Amino acid sequence: MNICVFCSAAELDSVYTDAAREFAGLLGKRGHSLVWGGSDSGLMKVVADGVQEAGGRLIGISVEFLRDVARPDADEMIVTADLAERKALMLDRADAVVVLVGGTGTLDEATEILELRKHGMHAKPVVVLNTAGFYDGLRQQMARMEAEGFLPIPLADLVTFADDGQQALELLGA
Ligand SMILES: C/C(=C\CNc1ncnc2c1ncn2[C@@H]1O[C@H](COP(=O)(O)O)[C@@H](O)[C@H]1O)CO
Predict the structure, then answer these.
(1) DSSP structure class, residue 66
(2) 149-167: buried (b, 16+ CB within 10 Å) or exposed (e) per residue?
(3) For ligand 1, which residues put their CB under 6 angstroms from it?
(4) Three-class SS of residue 147?
(5) How many A from CA of 154 to the centre of ligand 1?
(6) If you average pLDDT over residues 5-30, what whole number do you get?
(7) Burial 7-38 (b: 16+ CB within 10 A, else e)
(8) CATH class name, domain 2-169
(9) Source organism's superkingdom (predicted)?
(10) Which three-class secondary structure state does DSSP give residue 2?
(11) Across the strands, what pairs with 59?
(12) Which of 23, 24, 111, 153 has its CA 20 to 30 A from that of 36?
């Protein structure tokens, strides 16, 4: 399975890096490939290292203005002209999407993928890995959207939340 991971490009506390490393190890051990933003920094690097060390393939989808920080030893590295093309290609190459902890870049990627799913433009499963309750606020917000009629489909059909990497992969059947 090609699993697209959106996650932070920042250096983070071990509560986040340990969980990301564990998830990446499972992904690699089970023979899946990682589709990710291609950079060798922060949590993105932790995940790519973990997948590669466990024997998984790395498919990087970088973007022209970040070409200089693309990981040199990925199995594949595609460089798109802009962020919009990059997101489209990441989704295109993925069988499923997992959202790890992140900032505005991660949120941008995740919400676009959810919006496309909401409109039936794809049916790829999306799981949010809620390490240390990082996404409790988002989960609560989305539950409110559902309860108050802002979502045209059940929230559970749009996205599911996992507490750890094992559960995330279980939800994907991966
Ligand atoms: C090493 C440097 C920059 C590297 N930055 C990024 N490289 C690749 N992809 C990135 C980068 N920043 C954002 N992205 C994409 O958004 C997500 C991470 O954003 P966040 O705001 O950190 O959550 C990630 O999934 C990428 O696809 C120079 O210092």
Answers:
(1) G
(2) eebeeeeeebbebbeebeb
(3) 6-10, 37, 39, 41, 44, 66, 69, 102-106, 109
(4) helix
(5) 30
(6) 98
(7) bbbeebeeebbebbbebbbbbbeeebbbbbbb
(8) alpha beta
(9) Bacteria
(10) strand
(11) 35, 76
(12) 153
